[in-house]
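[Archive record]
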Amino acid sequence: MDFQGSVFLEALGSKALIQGVQLTVALTVVSFALGLIIGLLVAVLRDSRLRLLRAVSWTYIWIFRAIPTLIQLLIVWNALPQLIPALKGQWFSPFIAATIALSLNEAAYAAEIMRGGLLSVDEGQRLAARALGMTPFKVFSKVVAPQLIRVAIPPMANDFITLLKITSLASIISLRELMTNTQTEVASSFRFAEWYAAAAIYYLVLVSIFMLGQAWLERRYVWTSQGRGPRSFMRAIGR
């Protein structure tokens, strides 16, 4: 078996892969955060009383879930500058293009997860909070949001990990994330096994760290059977 341990260790500690990991994590976190914001808005519109808003949100989810992520990246990087001349400047970097594409893509999945979380909250709790004189914002932040977070954590954490791996597709637009730098080093050394193994180790470590974070969040927002009574409800809304 032609696997050189020294080359593998060199790959693990290489500056190129470390920089690629940093860019991968940054792209994942930024795209996920923006995707959550957009997704929450789309989820709210999905249950709007206005048919037009429901149609717009449904169409958004349909388009971005149907079109492959790779095509979305290529459209944002190559096609948008043709349609929007302002994007032809040097400021429109591969990182910005990847962030736009992945954020819009992530929002479509986050919207459905959040919509499921919103539907899991009993409407009676909202009515009870409004009857106590709470504003719509407080109803959402004190009553709906804590339960939404608890329900959404497992699927959203899984979505975050999926997004982390999907960032490797950004290599197609020359973003120097982990996979791009790995392929560059492979092209110069022809040591496929060692460099790809090193990249796999980095992905394993990153995913393991985020899985630990998921477990901590699930414990943080656990809802036991003892917390379902009226007293728990009153504590949740600050009464």
User: Anything to note?
Assistant: The longest helix spans residues 15-46. The chain has one domain: 5-236.
